[in-house]
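Re-running the complex after MR caught last week's input typo. The corrected sequence lines follow. Everything else is unchanged.
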Amino acid sequence: MAVLDRELRRGDPVLRDGTRLSELADPEHYEVSMRLLSDPEIYDLELEHLFARSWNLVAHESEVPNPGDYVMRYIGEDPIILTRGADGELNVLLNVCSHRGMMICRAEGGKGKQFKCPYHGWTYSNTGKFLSAPVAKERMWGDIRTKEELSLVKARVETYAGIVFANWDPEAPSLDEWLGGIRWYLDLMFDRTPEGLEVLGPPQRFIINANWKCPSEQHNVDGYHTLSLHASLMELQQMAGSDDNPTAQLGMNISANGHGLRCIDNREPFINVLKDKLRPDMTPMERMAVVPPPGLTAEQVPALTQRFNDEQLRVLAEFPPQVGGLFPNCGIFSVPFPTPQGLSAIIAMHTFVPKGVDRFEFFNWYLAEKTATQEMRESMRRASTLAFGISGFVESDDADTWPQMTQAARGAMGRRQKIRYQARTGEDSKPADWPGPGRVYAGFTKDDAQWNWWTRYFEVMTERER
Amino acid sequence: MSTQEKAVDEEIVEEHREPAPFQTEQAGKTEGIERVHIGDPLHFEIVEFLEDEASELDDNALTDWFQRMAPDLLYRMPVRITKDRVDGSEFSETMFHFDEDYLSLATKVMRLAATQTAWAEKPPSRTRRFVTNIKVFRLPPGEAEEYEVRSSILLLRNRYQESKLEILSARRTDRIRRTDDGLKIAARTIFPDQATIGTQNLAVFL
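Corrected-run output:
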């Protein structure tokens, strides 16, 4: 069943005042209009053109480990149920009863082979199949629609390294194609052991009164803000650097299909406690033996050679992908982090789920290797909660920023202002010996990758070919 | 009805699982611990301690507030998710909004109190904490005299020019210890009433 009305796809949308959406980007000057952050009409178009056609990160497989497990999540504003069927397969079902449209599942997670709508009792299997309704002999579902037609709407589901993505669009490219070149780098963050990662528990969830694009474009991938917004890290001596010597800013910014991440130059660590441990002349394996990649132990480091080639190992040791995002609305992290008890690590995923033009829900998962000891898990959870998420001393500053951008975009003048991405590295900075795919921007972190996120946004919203 | 549909109908299973008790009072057992009733001077002492503590937080006297913590502190706020009662507790034991020991809470407090760039609270929120429904229990004698104290807290928070107040309400379970230096908080667990927290960050404490 085609779940999307293809007629809704109008190409470059014309807004009520006659402006074409594409006119809100100025590629010549690398500017976009702040109207994009505050116009409810654009938000409605995003639900149709963007979220309903994208691969949306909804969960990690380890949240539904056993047949019968489920969690409730969102694709755009659509509530969905992610289930694991008796056959172990994942299903993503629209959480809307075929009968009178009530949400059939109201809990956020649990166990259940079937879902029974509270309103009239219509019952569905956890693969979405309409089974029956009370007083079956009366056939309260009639004979106009078949039972097949009365099943729950299903989305396509694909996973990468246990991360579950869903897409309503039957014609969308595969997840692999969607991720494109960024996958080479994601492997180094999320797919480093045969066992893989699992979540530490259910995600933190909280509301931020800001447009979802504020955090999304920041994570894809703004390194520069760290110096000002997170200057308290330097005041607390957690991070090295200053205005004159901004060490955390160097490395490669990677961009592919609108996804972006930063391979931060680790040859001269920006975390103070690492500074004395690493020397420039060390080989990649020597470096990782001293400071293992985030969430791995020194004992796990030798086995990395079975998973990665020399080029990947060099990137993992010298320019590890640490922070970034996935188009359209995710943040991803694999970072070492100093805690009062010593060096720990954070492996995290965020999604910025839209709840209106000026409101989004922040989902924040923490992960660890399935093989991690209890001690490692607790250390990572402590480090993560210290720095990230709702109470984290890094991200609590970000959370106070995005609402102010959104509010500023409301006024008659504000919405006519531009946000600017004019710090350009350019397309010719990729080092000759850089082994990874994607568009690579070397040196000080600049705006290229973020601009590419916006370019992708306009491509998807206006259906231009990639 | 076709045979095939009959077969499908037969798949419906009525599951009967025992619901977990609804946790209005998120706490350990109360058997074997002695309730300290309202009117007891100890109860008054604890109420005064909690009210003074709330005032310090409202007044943004964070370093004073931090002096109330014991060095073996565990300060936590578990993530809550909406669950059917048959699926057990709504509170996660492995994911937290706050998950602090003495040093990590010290780091958060120091950042807010002593750096110039903690933008999350610069300018500071205006907050008001209401602490009520206080139940005090005397814990079995150990190395130190300790009390289990349960309280409800309503935190109102306001920032910038917004007229609306953000609301956080929670039940707290504290372990409060008598020391030579007065009462100290050895453990606090904050059980939020929201599954999705309605404030953009927790750069404020409960």
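None of the earlier attempt is carried over here. Confidence is low (pLDDT under 50) at residues 1-8 of chain A. The CA atoms of residues 149 and 248 of chain A lie 55 Å apart.
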